[in-house]
Amino acid sequence: MENGETTAEAASRETHEEAGARIIIDAPFSMVSIAHINQVHLFYRGRLASAEHSAGDESLEVALLQPEEIPWEEIAFRSVTHCLERFLTDAAQGHFGFHETALPPLGRAS
What domains appear along the chain, each with residue ranges and CATH number? Predict the structure, then answer.
């Protein structure tokens, strides 16, 4: 987040910076505490405002994928994997909730 920015504004800005996409935020979706590295990752559920998207300065590649095309082994952050798994489960059930979890260090049970 930048100074003077809400979490939703930060999510929208980061999405544009990293994926060249403009979004419409629907609702907070997932909060992942990662205490061992002093971070909290907050994810919002939203929609593309237009089909435009492109790799930004911090991204090598950006693509829109169907769930079966997600390259799970290439996802860099466990919090993103966790969030995507919850999103797909909620979508299959036809309703979205808010998910909160904590991720322990790798190799340690939660």
Answer: 7-102 (3.90.79.10)
